[in-house]
Amino acid sequence: KAIELFDAMNDGKIKAVWIMATNPVVSLPDSEKIKTALEKCPFVVVSDCIADTETTRLADVVLPAQGWSEKSGTVTNSERRISRQRRILPSPGEAKPDWWILKEVAQKMGFNEQFDYRHEGEIFKEYSEMTALGNETGKARDLCLIGLTKLDEKGYGELTPQQWPVLEYQPEIIEQRMFTNGEFFTESGKAQFIAVEHDKPIADTSVEFPLIMNTGRIRDQWHT
């Protein structure tokens, strides 16, 4: 968890951190503690599409990432539908995709064979193959992309929206609901409901301060 990670960093247990696609000095609670943790960390790398943020100011190395309209890949929404994200703008300067940056660093560290990707479609294919491990053909599990494991670069480029589990490629958009058979992926096969108690915020509203501010969130912008 992010909070525990920064607690460990504050205690000197983490010597290096690579932060991608987030600005924790703003998005996490207790920003002063987060700043202190990053200042204590011997080596901080930040990948971001914005050069000057509260977190990049504390970095030893800043890597130029692509913005949402510059990258290609996939996006999965809350109804389990995977859609292709296709770039619509060229990248400025030396900005690169996150997967390419990770690949280059890994290869410099000697992991050439494990990170020999030429295209993001190869990563998606490997991901699909991993979801198929331990899954039987014809049996729907919560995440299974067996039907996408044969995609080549052309097929990935033309990928239509797919809703998992994908046991066979879906040429048309389909709707499939999970758990309509009353069976769940638990040991008992039954749904598990856990009652929780609400923890009130430390600072509650009052006559003097009657409002609570909460930062907004959209698909590509989380609190920062």
TrEMBL record:
SUPFAM superfamilies: Formate dehydrogenase/DMSO reductase, domains 1-3 (SSF53706)
Segment forming the signal sequence: none
TM spans (from-to): none
GO cellular component: membrane
Domain of life where this protein originates: Bacteria
Sequence ranges assigned to domain Molybdopterin oxidoreductase in this UniProt record: 2-107
MF terms in GO: oxidoreductase activity
InterPro entries: Mopterin_OxRdtase, Prok_molybdopt-oxidoreductase
Pfam short name (any one): Molybdopterin
The entry's keywords: Oxidoreductase
Protein name per UniProt: NasA
Organism: Vibrio sp. 'A4 isolate-3'
Gene: nasA
